[in-house]
Amino acid sequence: MVLTPFLTMQTIAQPATPSPTPASTPTPTPTATPGSSSPADTLTPTPVSQPKPEAQEKIKLELPEDPFEKGKTKQEKQEDEARIGKLIEADRLYKAGKIPEAVQIYQKVKRPFLTALPPKVAELPIVTDPEQLSPGGQVYWREAKEGLAQNMESRAIVAIDLLIKKHPEFLPGQLLNTQIQTQYGKPEQALATLEALAVRYPRNAEVQRLRITALNKAEKSLDASIAARQYALLASTNPIESEEFTRLADNAFDDYRKALRRKINGSVIGNVITGAIGTLLTGGLIGPLTATQSAFSLIQGESAIGKSVAKQAKSQLTMVDDPELKAYVNEIGQKLAKVAGRKDFEYEFNIVLDENINAFALPGGPVFINAGAIAKTDSEAELAGLVGHEISHAALTHGLQLMAQGNLMTSIVGYIPYAGGLVSDVFAFNYSRDMERQADDFGTRILVGGGYAADGLHSLMLKLQAEEAKRNRARPPVWLSSHPGSDERVTNIEAVILNSGFDRYAYEGADRHASFKAKAQKLIQDEKKRVKLKKKNPDM
User: Fold this and answer.
1) Which residues contact 141 (CB under 8 A, 6 or more apart)?
2) Given the DSSP bridges, would you call strands 366-370 and 421-423 parallel, antiparallel or unpaired?
3) 194 Cβ partners below 8 Å, 6+ apart?
4) pLDDT tens string 98-122
5) Contact (Cβ atoms closer than 8 angstroms) between residue 89 and residue 109
6) How close are the terminal C-alpha atoms of the chain, in Å?
7) pLDDT of residue 102
8) Which of 93, 282, 301, 470 is surrounded by the fewest CB atoms within 10 Å?
9) Sign of torsion over alpha carbons 489, 491, 493, 499
10) Which of 362-371, 416-425, 513-522 has the least mean pLDDT?
11) Within 10 A of 261 (CB to CB), how many other CB atoms are there?
12) Which residue pairs, CB below 8 angstroms and at least 24 apart, start in 108-117?
């Protein structure tokens, strides 16, 4: 397992005449937030007793030898150093309001997107006015309505089938079809029809309302809650409509918990949740839950589930206690959480002392970030991209969804010591491709809402891919290995940014991030030494 280069940053004066080098250079500390335009936002060391330089200060980034850097040539290290220096220069211009100058530098430093600007994915055309139908279509429409009104099953079914075949874009006909299916004893077929329409018209509020109603009638209240929540966060652009669907989501989840209580009171636990919910969490960190325990967890809600698991995780993982580092990650996380919504969540952001780039979010808001994610990212925007992605999984109820399906798994048990450092497998939710796509999409949107460059997550994924391609390792970085289809996802993120018109040439936060990156690297190195020493001297 490899460690990232220990990046140090010094402000080197360029005096008119040579001056003696000080014996030691104090550790720089950040003195301003990303939103500040004060000159105090630069990272400068504590003043040393020496003449004040007359020339303009110049930033120099030093990349000392480190195991993580062994595969890089001297030229590659110099290119990394120059790139970060350029990002810092661009950030300072950006914060000073010199946007055009900053954008020019960002454009030179960042790799162009490989994805060409695709046409925006348009929903299929919708026809709602019967007068727009062909003469034959108007006859079928009239016959289907009259057949349903007169309870003439064959007449209604034949007419609606002919109408849909001739005019699939006629939405009232599609919705009438679900009514006919329901009335004549085919509610499952009606629900399947609505599910297909929801995919075809993902931003049509009326279709989504009918789908949610059908799910509730089918006693699939949890599915109804998830569908409403995701529509409110991902698809709706109307604040009033978003609030409506948020209420629908809350009401459906309340119904789900009430139904679950009734089943528990009736001692019908065996099939409370689809699949083997007893395997909710496996391994040594958090043992398997019984069906009863799992059901009670779901009754308590997402926040209660997250708090319970987070408490146990903190007690068994090595956590970072550094106040400045914790405050930095919490500031980024809370900023993004405000944009993500879910006021019912109690977001908290924790740091695990592990060298891998990894993170996971629990239902209800607890988020865990590895110190390696801080140590191996080059900017605040990259770290925020990772944090925003995990927040999205929580906000979109992906963890709860997997829990209800009995597919919520963990391998936190992989956090065990070995000779040379810490081993960590990933806290692995078996997220589907759709879930990953949703989290990338929503995560990019909240990243932009937080004031960062839109391609923070994109930049991080490219870096990880490049690292693995160069090393020719069969196993990808742990965070990518748990999130399948990384090439496809990079393309999808590019499409989201391009189609939405998001700005990738905006604040990166490279300057501010540098000191926290160095601090995280130091903590990781110290922990590796401590673990190695303890192995040699178990009685210490």
Assistant:
1) 130, 133, 159, 163, 170, 172, 173
2) unpaired
3) 178, 207, 210, 211, 214
4) 999 999 999 999 988 877 654 544 5
5) no
6) 25
7) 94
8) 470
9) negative
10) 416-425
11) 13
12) 109/83, 110/455, 110/459, 110/504, 110/505, 111/462, 113/494, 113/497, 113/498, 114/491, 114/494, 115/491, 115/494, 115/495, 115/498, 117/498, 117/499
**Does 299 score more than 70 pLDDT?**
no
Residue 230: enclosing H or E segment and its boundaries? Answer: helix 221-230
pLDDT tens-place string over residues 208-247? 999 999 999 888 887 888 888 888 887 777 888 988 998 9
Rounded to a whole number, what is the largest CA-CA distance in the chain? 100
Phi and psi torsions of 370, nearest 5°: -70, 145
**Judging by beta carbons within 10 Å of its beta carbon (0-12, 13-18, 19+), is residue 358 exposed, middle or buried?**
buried
Identity at 382, one-letter amino acid code:
E
Cβ count within 10 A of residue 73: 9
pTM, to two decimals: 0.65
**Distance (Å, whole) CA 251 – CA 525:** 49
203 pLDDT tier (thresholds 50, 70, 90):
confident
Among left, alpha and beta (phi > 0; psi -120 to 50; other), residue 138 is alpha
Distance CA 485, CA 109 (A): 26
Three-state helix/strand/coil letters over 286-337: CCCCCHHHHHHHHHHCHHHHHHHHHHHHHHHCCECCCHHHHHHHHHHHHHHH
CB proximity list for 529: less than 8 A, separation 6 or greater: none
Bridge partners of 361, per DSSP, are 367
Dihedral (CA of 298, 302, 308, 312) sign: positive
Site of tokens 């990650």: 329
Q: How far apart are CA 59 and CA 245, in angstroms?
A: 51
- Structure tokens given for 489: 């996802």
Q: How far apart are CA 180 and CA 187, in angstroms?
A: 9
Helices (H), 352-485: 371-375, 380-395, 398-405, 433-449, 456-471, 478-481
CA distance 211 to 93: 50
Contact criterion met (CB below 8 Å) for 29 and 327: no
Q: Is 170 helix (H, G, I), strand (E, B) or coil?
A: strand
Q: Are 426 and 358 in contact (CB under 8 A)?
A: yes
> What is the 3-state composition of the chain as percent helix, strand, coil, each rounded to the nearest 5?
55, 5, 35
Distance CA 62, CA 21 (A): 16
Query: Any bridge partners for residue 367, and if so which?
Result: 349, 361
SS3 521: helix
Long-range contacts of 480-483 (CB under 8 A, 24+ apart): 481/426, 482/426, 482/428, 482/429, 483/431, 483/436
Structure tokens at 116: 């060409």
Q: Extract the tokens encoding 492.
A: 């999808």
Residue 442, sorted as left (phi over 0), alpha (psi -120 to 50) or beta, turns out to be alpha
**Eight-state DSSP code of residue 127:** B
**Segment 451-468, tens digit of pLDDT:** 999 999 999 888 877 766
